[in-house]
Amino acid sequence: MIKISKYLYKIEFENQILLYQPISDQMFKMKRGEYDVFSSKLKNINLFKNDYPTFYNWLTENLFLVSNDVTELNIIRTMNKVKCFSDKDYWLTINPTLECNLNCWYCSVKEATGGKIFEGKVNSSVYLSLEKHIQYMITQKKITGLHIDWFGGEPLLYFKEVILPLSKYAIDVTSKYKIPLTCHITTNGTLISKSMARQFKQLNINSFQISIDGNKSAHDKVKYFKNNKNSAYDTTIKNIILILEANINAVVDVRINFDKDTLSDIDSVLNAFPIGLRKQINIDFHKIFQLTKIKDVDINIFVEKAKTLGYSSSYWAFRPQRFYTCYADKYFHAAINFDGKVFKCTARDYTEKFQIGTLLENGKIEYIGFKQFEMHALASFENEQCLKCKYLPLCFGPCIQFAFDKNNNDCNRDICAKNNWEMTVNDFIISKYKESLKINDSEK
């Protein structure tokens, strides 16, 4: 017997019916009258199959229709395992330091440490261990690709001392063993110079995340220099442009950290970048995570506005066909702090409580007990609330660290992310539909 997928979404839009299957990430539209006929004929699946064999096959291949003996949840579980365990591209997060040249009230590092900032940078001993670690992962663990994610703190404080030499080493060793290398930096963007922007290209650092906290006035109230009165906003905008002008392959994720007031003058931010560079920028809207859900904010309005102005734009909550929540969910991931301590999550306290291991002098990671296996034993969505949720194949539940904390009674927050969504699922699907129309028009 065949049944309609329990994850199927039906949405009315502009006198049409959109039908969307999030597991396969496929969609089709019908006029209302066509849908009424379609819906009626589906009441007799065998007759529908005989009358429309090609359409029936497409619907079953893309999981709009599924066999009664198929548990769709097990498809999600299996794909989660495939994505998290079979992918041997290694995501290596490195914190050159936890220090920063700015002073932001919502800093996750300051919050996690009660306002205390751990001073220090990668020393010569940890640096050599990082080189050996990369060599070990390539030659012994047989990783199929290396992605270095520079994080912090402000990683560019130690560009010359850490990022520059280790990036050169990574280029040499990945070239030698013929595996791909990609590099990303999460930075506040204030320390970038023309020379550094050119070096990014040479070092294969083509991906950036840089935060903007609203217009100039709002941003400079949140992000400000400790030792001078220059505008952090002006400096950041100028340096994003420097990156993009120096490298046509560079992509900058401009993360808009918003509160209830930030979005009121978002136009000034969106108009700050030259039109010719906007195709290299993704505008990524995130509510400041310490804040509760902001009422009366429809983030889809701002996503669509950004797209209209020539940017790509996204919203963090929906991840069809990703089958996991965060890169840290993947088995081949580690976050190595400047002192050689190893963690899973970069948004938690960098203390022994959340430490999962230590980087040894020989480049191997010595894990603490069985914590690594405990964290990966179950998918992060293996809880009653997520397993019953229709949004599971769009959301995939909490991250691995959150789920681990919750399972160990070490977190009081609600496990459900939906309570913090500022975009509806319907708006997300309609936005996907509009994007598909643009793609189809461009291919004509």
The CATH topology of the largest domain turns out to be TIM Barrel
Q: Determine Rg (CA atoms, Å).
A: 24 Å
Question: Strand order across the biggest sheet?
Answer: 12-11-10-9-8-7-6-13-14-15-16
Molecular shape = globular
Average pLDDT reading = 91
Task: Report what the structure shows.
The protein has 444 residues and is an alpha/beta fold. The protein folds into two domains: 2-70, no CATH class; 82-336, TIM Barrel. The protein contains 17 helices and 16 strands. It has helices at residues 32-41, 45-51, 53-61, 72-86, 108-112, 124-139, 159-176, 194-202, 216-222, 232-246, 266-270, 299-308, 371-376, 384-387, 392-395, 400-407, 425-443; strands at 2-4, 9-13, 16-21, 26-31, 65-67, 89-94, 145-150, 181-187, 205-212, 251-258, 281-287, 312-315, 333-336, 341-343, 357-359, 365-367. Strands 12-11-10-9-8-7-6-13-14-15-16 form an eleven-stranded mixed β-sheet, covered by helices on one side. Helix 2 packs across helix 3, helix 6 (124-139) runs parallel beside helix 7 and helix 8 packs across helix 10. The mean pLDDT is 91.
Question: Features of this protein?
Answer:
16 strands; TIM Barrel; 2 domains; 17 helices; 444 residues; globular; eleven-stranded mixed β-sheet; 38% helix; alpha/beta
Detail the topology: elements first, then pairings:
Blueprint: E1 2-4, E2 9-13, E3 16-21, E4 26-31, H1 32-41, H2 45-51, H3 53-61, E5 65-67, H4 72-86, E6 89-94, H5 108-112, H6 124-139, E7 145-150, H7 159-176, E8 181-187, H8 194-202, E9 205-212, H9 216-222, H10 232-246, E10 251-258, H11 266-270, E11 281-287, H12 299-308, E12 312-315, E13 333-336, E14 341-343, E15 357-359, E16 365-367, H13 371-376, H14 384-387, H15 392-395, H16 400-407, H17 425-443
Parallel strand pairs: 6-7, 6-13, 7-8, 8-9, 9-10, 10-11, 11-12
Antiparallel strand pairs: 1-5, 2-3, 3-4, 13-14, 14-15, 15-16
